[in-house]
């Protein structure tokens, strides 16, 4: 499918959703941004189309059975015992944009969570795109977002560094609490794609600033600085992450397992040595900081000519292991932020990676080809002290 057809399909689909008149708290300005966003989709992954999975007839407040003429509420599709009752350990709150439960927005459900609750609060989010800016404050620990699939449930907003007074504040979702979990949901920043070099165009899908956060089967969609892995220990499993310039950045200590990274960086002419993007920009500022990014059994593909990382801070630490790297990776692989004084302090390592972009013969001199002993420190959840907190998240 060519880009123009893709844009047209998505645009029509989004207008269909709004035309159904069931979107809760729709803001005209948001609609204008969404239209701008669809027009700019020519360089986006076709996976975005999957975010319009709706049968438009089912979006109406009522529908008819094929064998009956009696209208039936769409809310009748849910089992009678849903949501499950509150227990000593778990509270379930449900969000449905059609009004089938108590909450039509994600933020309203968060606001209803008791402060400093020791219970696990599961916020069950029905299929759909929820156009809202979501903030989870420090006072709301132990929250789980449970979506219906990362191509079915998404939270989206359109802030940029300019509109939000800084890149750090542009996240569509901002997590400041501890013990956060997300499953089968996507986080999107749908600000229009801007020309390279435009001041204030940075647009973050999610900022994760709380300790002990885990993401299973999630999607992260943005045009540039998509995932702000700010600080704390974090775990990502079977996730899809899309962006262009430093699209995974921050000073977190995080393990990415079985994740797919897709570069949307601008294509470069054959034979050109110019760089149009980077996967990571880690922000470790001193040797005393226990942080770093580890990517294990992942893949990196897409467009552009990119680096695996660049040293945003002088002690930046990133490792790629058992990862498939396509030919979009520049031969040097990494960048010291054009500051040679950082070459002795940054830690960039590769271990048993494959693909056309994994050839290390042309790597920058500070890049390390890790041996088994060196790599072992980054390959399992012990890197993020997972034995202390992560196992309990599966229950």
UniProtKB/TrEMBL annotation:
Entry's localization field: Secreted, Cell wall
Signal peptide as annotated in the record: 1-19
Reactions mediated catalytically: [(1->4)-alpha-D-galacturonosyl methyl ester](n) + n H2O = [(1->4)-alpha-D-galacturonosyl](n) + n methanol + n H(+)
EC number: 3.1.1.11
Pathway this chain belongs to: Glycan metabolism; pectin degradation; 2-dehydro-3-deoxy-D-gluconate from pectin: step 1/5
Active-site feature positions: 246
Pfam families: Pectinesterase
GO biological processes: cell wall modification; pectin catabolic process
Highest taxon of the lineage: Eukaryota
Pectinesterase catalytic domain ranges (all copies): 94-387
NADP recorded as keyword: no
UniProt key word Hydrolase: yes
Keywords: Aspartyl esterase, Cell wall, Cell wall biogenesis/degradation, Glycoprotein, Hydrolase, Secreted, Signal
Gene3D superfamilies: Single-stranded right-handed beta-helix, Pectin lyase-like (2.160.20.10)
Family label: Belongs to the pectinesterase family.
Task of the protein: Acts in the modification of cell walls via demethylesterification of cell wall pectin.
Protein name: Pectinesterase
Organism from which the protein derives: Hibiscus syriacus
């Amino acid at each position: 499918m060519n880009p123009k057809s893709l844009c047209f399909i998505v645009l029509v689909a989004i207008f269909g959703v709004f035309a159904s008149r069931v979107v809760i708290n729709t803001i005209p300005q948001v609609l204008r941004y969404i239209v701008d966003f669809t027009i700019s989709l020519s360089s986006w992954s076709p996976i975005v189309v999957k975010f319009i999975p709706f049968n438009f007839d089912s979006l109406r407040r009522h529908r008819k059975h094929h064998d009956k003429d009696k209208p039936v509420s769409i809310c009748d599709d849910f089992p009678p015992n849903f949501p499950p009752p509150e227990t000593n350990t778990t509270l379930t709150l449900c969000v449905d944009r059609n009004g089938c439960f108590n909450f039509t927005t994600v933020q309203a459900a968060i606001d209803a969570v008791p402060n400093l609750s020791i219970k696990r609060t599961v916020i069950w989010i029905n299929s759909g795109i929820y156009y809202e800016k979501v903030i989870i404050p420090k006072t709301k620990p132990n929250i789980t977002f449970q979506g219906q699939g990362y191509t079915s449930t998404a939270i989206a907003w359109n802030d940029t560094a300019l509109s939000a007074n800084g890149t750090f504040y542009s996240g569509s979702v901002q997590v400041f609490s501890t013990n956060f979990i997300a499953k089968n949901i996507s986080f999107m920043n749908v600000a229009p794609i801007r020309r390279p070099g435009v001041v204030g165009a940075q647009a973050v899908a999610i900022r994760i600033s709380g300790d002990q956060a885990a993401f299973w089967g999630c999607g992260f969609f943005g045009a540039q600085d998509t995932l702000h892995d700010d600080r704390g220990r974090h775990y990502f499993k079977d996730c899809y992450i899309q962006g262009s310039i430093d699209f995974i950045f921050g000073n977190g200590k995080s393990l990415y397992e079985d994740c797919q990274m897709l570069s949307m960086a601008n294509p470069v002419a054959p034979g050109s040595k110019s760089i149009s993007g980077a996967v990571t920009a880690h922000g470790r500022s001193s040797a005393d900081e226990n942080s770093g990014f580890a990517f294990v059994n992942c893949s990196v593909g897409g467009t552009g000519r990119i680096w695996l990382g660049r040293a945003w801070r002088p002690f930046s630490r990133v490792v790629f292991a058992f990862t498939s790297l396509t030919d979009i990776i520049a031969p040097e692989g990494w960048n010291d932020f054009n500051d040679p004084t950082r070459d002795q302090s940054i830690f960039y390592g590769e271990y048993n990676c494959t693909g056309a972009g994994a050839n290390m013969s042309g790597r920058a001199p500070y890049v390390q080809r890790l041996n088994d002993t060196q790599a072992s420190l980054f390959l399992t959840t012990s890197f993020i002290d997972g034995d202390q907190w992560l196992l309990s998240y599966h229950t």
